[in-house]
Each structure stands twice: as structure tokens, then as C-alpha cells.
Amino acid sequence: TLEPRTSSPLARLNAIREELARLRTLEAKHSGERDAIRETERKLHESIETAVKQIAVIEMEMNAQQVQAAALERTIADEIRAAEANQSKKRGFWSRGESGGDSKRVREARRELKSLDKQQHTERDRLDRLRDELRALQQRETANAGRLRETDDRVAAIQTRILFYEDQLGVLICSNHDSL
Hints:
The protein is mainly α. It contains 2 helices and no strands.
């Protein structure tokens, strides 16, 4: 704060210089804070892009797994129908044909299907975690953007005050020069 206008021009000049020094220090501090916030914003943006890419990859893998599971289910159904057709032909009075058990191919397909189900469950859990992480990152990005706007506004206000005091300093110096 400056002294009243009734003080000597030299005292006013010193007060303006002190205020300018204080404002420039404050500007440097807030500019540093703004730079740190921008760096945080950059890192958040990178993290969001990474999460989005990971989600896309997992979704593609899950789609491929669903296609594979559907193919396995068709294979199982076809093998069971074929086995039932063969059994009805082999049934005789003394027939010792295959006892209604599944063929090796059906057992392998069921094993693969069970494995796929486990993988899909794991991938679904991973996808849910990634989506939660993405939401959290987006919330942090929104909060960070608000902080950046506030810091930009503070720096702009400080710069305006600096310009005002620099103008006052110029006026004071010119008036002192003219009075000499």
C-alpha cells in the first residue's frame, strides 16, 4: 500500500518501487504455480490417453474372446448332435458302443470355453478398474483446469497492477523531472 499523496515525491517513488518489487515477487510465485499446474495438466492428459487406449484394447480382446466362445459353443453343440445321431444308429440289443459320454473334442472345447470364461471375467474386472481410473483422472483434470483458470486470473490481475504502478512511477518520475 502506498502512502498518501501528501508525502514527498521521493517517499512516493520509494513506496511505488517497493510495491512493484512485491508484486513482481508475487507474480513470479504465481507464474511458477501456474507452470506446475500446466505440467500436471499435461501428465493428466497423457494418463487419460493411455487409459482410453488400454480400454479400447481390452474391449477388442473381449470381443475376440466372445467370438471365440461362440465358435466353441457351436462346436460343442455340433459334436453333441453328431454323437447323439451316432448313438441312435449304434443302439442294438447287445451293443457295447460308446456310453453316452462326451467325445474328446467336446471335452476340449468345454475346457477351452471355461478358460475363456475365466479370462473374460478377469478382463471385465480389469476393464471396470480402468474405467473407474479414467473417471477419477477426468475429475482430477476438471479440478486442475479450474485451478489453472484461477491462477491465470491471479497472474493477470497482478500484471495489471504492475502495469498500473509502472505507469504511476513513470508519471511521478516525469513530474519530478519537470519540476527540476
